[in-house]
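FORM 7B: Structural annotation worksheet

SECTION A. Query
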Amino acid sequence: MQFDMIFMALVVMVAYLIRGLSGFGSGLIAVPVLAMFYPLPVIVPVVLTLDFVASFILGGANRKEANWGEIKLLVPFGLVGALLGVFALLRFPPAPVLIALAVFVIYFGFRNVLGVKTAGLISTAWAVPAGLVGSGAGALFGTSAPPYVIYLTHRLPDKAAVRATFSCLFIIDGGFRLALLVGAGLLWQEQVQSAILWSMLPMTAGLYLGNRIHINITTETMLKIIGVVLVINGFMLIAKVIL
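SECTION B. Predicted structure
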């Protein structure tokens, strides 16, 4: 059991180091790796709780740069997506959910590797699928960042505004998902509570290091490295289900 907790702590620290560097990606890194060893109803509430705390830390430091107009557009659809995601987490069998998570992770991994970008400003109508899919995936998989970040990066030209807006959005959207998981009883599990307490220190250390470290690679290179990790994680999850 102690080895399991040490392994989880290391994964969490790396995931939140990435979050500290880029402003997102903690769930995309942590959930696929941990899902190979723990059930999703344990991992999702753990990572969601850690992301909620991390968003308070990052959002509190940068809230003045957040675009509240975009947050108001996304939140209503995010609330609906959260309800659908929690229902699926509680009702669907684990194998198809893990396959869906793997495909989700591989897709966004390849987007990073290939440097896929959508040019120009997109319509606010895209807030509907971004909110539904982002929050739904967050409740089901523990990671809501990709749909939200794709939307925000094509609405807001300033990277600092994207990071601050996503963090503040997650405080509201993620807080609602967290409340749903509390109501469903998932956060009352002893294993979940123990994992959250065990992970707080490495999460904080990862965020601190991510914010402090200056690395000699471009943002594009870092995203490609993250993409490779995501693709590998996705295929490993598929292998876990099939084998």
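SECTION C. Observations
The chain has a mean pLDDT of 83. The longest helix spans residues 159-183.

SECTION D. Sign-off
Analyst initials: ____
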